[in-house]
Records
---
Amino acid sequence: MKNIFKRFDIRVVVAIVATLSCVVIASDFILFRFTYQAQFEGMRSQLKIIAQTAALLVDADKLTQVPLNKEGISTPQFDYVEALLKKIKAANPKIKDIYTLKKVDSGNIWRFIVDLQTNNPADFSSPGDTYDAGRFPEMLKGYNDPSADTKIETDQWGSTLSGYAPIRDDLGRPVAVLGVDLDAGDVATVYRQSLSQALVILLVGIILAIILGAFISSRVLGPVKRLIHGTRHISRGNLDHRVPIKGDDEIGELANSFNSMAKSLEESRQRLMDYFYDAVKSLVLTLEYRDQYTMGHSQSVAHYAEKIAQHMGIDAKTIDMLKKVTLLHDIGKVGVRDNVLNKPDKLSDAEWEKIKGHPVLGWQILKPILDDPNMLEIIRNHHERQDGKGYPDGLIREQISLLVAIVTVADSYDAMTSNRPYRQGMSREEAIEQLHVGKGKQFHPDVVDALLEVLKKTDQKTA
């Protein structure tokens, strides 16, 4: 028996079986862990963004004026906050419940202020009702910084994940916590499906490894290396990678299973990103409802940016990314108060600094969830100028990417031709003249030329 293992072919077979088994187990574990962990952490990041953005919309002064007793529900301040929470929930159907809590002493027993309980109306809490926040450590953290629970809660009303963010007064001090319960049924389903798939693939993989061990090492080692290479790509998040192995044998089947799982992961991530965009676009709509003069501005800018990019020969995948991020380019304005955003008179220096801070705030809001630096660059730098006089970073010419320059021109043209509280919108001809004036100074010359061609083609079609 011992002499058998001295034979090279037997040792190769054993080595191949062992190697393939390890590859299958490792890839299975990585795929399963990546599927669920990516979905779960993605949802936690969304929750933090949603909770933080919603908290910025709440007027801390009016919230703290709600009496913490049964009569508080009849006050105008309660009605105002309740109406705002209803708008936020209506903008994001995934939200089950949204509520505000206040810490009244140094302990962990907090008190409700406004509770928009729609998941189970029987659990509605009146102002002043107590709540043991100590049961949820992430809720306690949410009093100072955005946070989200680390596990999904499941009850008779379904699976939920909760996120929290501080509501701050004008001095930046936390005065209450805003909590959001999000429907986590999709993530729970992914966990069960991924676990089942992982077990099936593990079993099939081990069986295939034993069968494939009978083949000659020269035929097997090549595909094995490609599988290992594919696993590394998947573990790094490159979900569009596919293992280039063809054939009807067991290796081909394993590669097909691997590619199928990678495709499933890619589709899951795309659904997650689509959900994120829908959630943030809902918040953008909420923002635009606050400012009737910019209603539809993001959609118009995205339209112009798409047409410019198409005219300049940019590939379809990049254009799709550009459209999505352009819809979110002004998300940072959620941090600007209504009396500044809609002020009909000239802004003071302090108010103008508040407005100028929206690109950085938008960048900070989206940075935890967007992993594409090009998208984040567009959010942060769409008010930069070619001559370096823009904000927030004072970039100049070659430091500004072409995609950023496209959004800058599209944004400026739509802003110039739109009515604002402090001025009437320019005519098309006046706006085009301003584009010529700013060409090479404020705007990228090639992008201006591309927009002018787009507008000319539009005129020809309508003529």
---
Amino acid sequence: MKAKSILLFVCAVIVLISAGTAIAKAGVPVTDGKGKTQVADNGMMITAKLSVKPDKIKEFLEAAKEMIAKANTESGCKFYQLFQDPYNNTKFIFVEEYKNQAAVDAHFATDYFKAFGAKIGPLVQEPAKIKIVTVAKEVNQ
């Protein structure tokens, strides 16, 4: 009975260590033995939904084209693209993917990003609806 208890305990420890490693790789916050939280360096995704004034679509697309070209040259940017709603041509969504939070911060700090916000302000009907999410785990199939 004592041998089974020890074996069960050892198996439980192995499972917990394996789970902790998998969770850390997935980017879920994990505390170390001293109570400090550590997070793996995860990818980041951003979506920004915009509604453009109907008479400003061409001007918006010109500004967006420049922004997309510059953002896609950033070392931490994996993907930066704009999509237009096929049923309502005033609705747009930017979809962006970055290597990590540092890459997002670097993108937001660029002069052209700041200038883009000021440039499109008068072209949109309302402020952008922005979502920033952490990619917990990336699976290639």
